[in-house]
Amino acid sequence: MNISMTPPSPPVKTRRYDATRRRHEATRNRERVLDVAEEILLGQGYAETTVSAIARAADVSAELIYKSFGGKAGLVRAIQRRGLRGTGPVPAETRSDAISASELNAATIIREWATLATEVAPRVSPIMLLIRAAAANDHDLVELLEEIAAQRLKRMTHNAERLIRHPEVRPHLSVEQIRDILWTYSSPELYQLLVLQRGWTLTAYRDFLFHGMTAQLLNPDETAARRSPERPTRA
Fold first, then answer.
1. How far is Cα 66 from Cα 26, in angstroms, rounded to an integer?
2. Which has the closest alpha carbon to 203: 171, 181, 229, 180?
3. What angle do CA 154, 157, 159 make, to 5 degrees?
4. 17 close to 35: Cβ distance less than 8 angstroms
5. Is 19-70 a domain of CATH 1.10.10.60?
6. How far is CA 229 from CA 4, 141, 151, 166, in A?
7. Where are the domains of the chain?
8. What CATH number belongs to 86-227?
9. What distance in Å separates the CA atoms of residue 37 and residue 192, rounded to the nearest whole number?
10. What's phi and psi for 40, nearest 5 deg?
11. What DSSP state is assigned to residue 63?
């Protein structure tokens, strides 16, 4: 009987699928598309901008944009949501929840909220101006505007439900009243009026939010709410 002395062939090594690398690439591509879309939309306006133009500038296919975002209105929605995350490594909403769940006093919580609002507003307000202007002639953006308003109201209700637990809050205020005060001071319209139109600095805007909210929400004898930060100044 003949016995072959040829050694067995080594197993074929398959190339490991690098899912992490592909996810990172997909994230980078998505961010690039949003960067390009935001620049073109804010520079040219909603009606004048086409998905094809964004695709060419971002070096992707229009089909990819429709698949990933659902079209132009979907791009605007994604840009707005990205702005809400703020500039830090942790989304602003997560940081807000951590602040309100902490042992900080009410005045400090409001000061931190004012700081977060100042971080987010420059990123969100320009796109909100774009949405409002275009909504007059685009039903998709009317729906987006309503969606954003509902989400912001829900967020301010959540914040109000946490803030009302603090003894420093004026006792006659309901959750709904606190919510509406927070809603007003965090509105994109206020940023547009004071910073974009009247030229206030971000520091002055932040201080205005802090002092305004503490005056409306906290008992007058809360001296801690008057000490920091300094009163708003025009620059």
1. 15
2. 229
3. 115
4. no
5. yes
6. 86, 38, 29, 20
7. 19-70, 86-227
8. 1.10.357
9. 22
10. -70, -45
11. H
Q: Which amino acid, residue 133?
A: A
**What is the dihedral sign for C-alpha 130, 132, 137, 139?**
positive
DSSP string computed for 152-197 = HHHHHHHHHHHHTTSTTB-TT--HHHHHHHHHHHT-HHHHIIIIII
Residue with token string 């008992």: 219
Contact assessment for residue 217 and residue 99, using Cβ atoms and an 8 Å cutoff: no
pLDDT 10s digit of each residue in the chain, 235 long?
A: 555 555 666 665 555 556 787 777 878 889 999 999 999 999 999 999 999 999 999 999 999 999 999 999 999 999 999 999 999 899 999 999 999 999 899 999 999 999 999 999 999 999 999 999 999 999 999 999 999 999 999 999 999 999 999 999 999 999 999 999 999 999 999 999 999 999 999 999 999 999 999 999 999 875 444 444 444 444 4
Residues 178 and 171: beta-carbon distance below 8 Å: no
Q: Map tokens 């930060």 to a residue.
A: 229
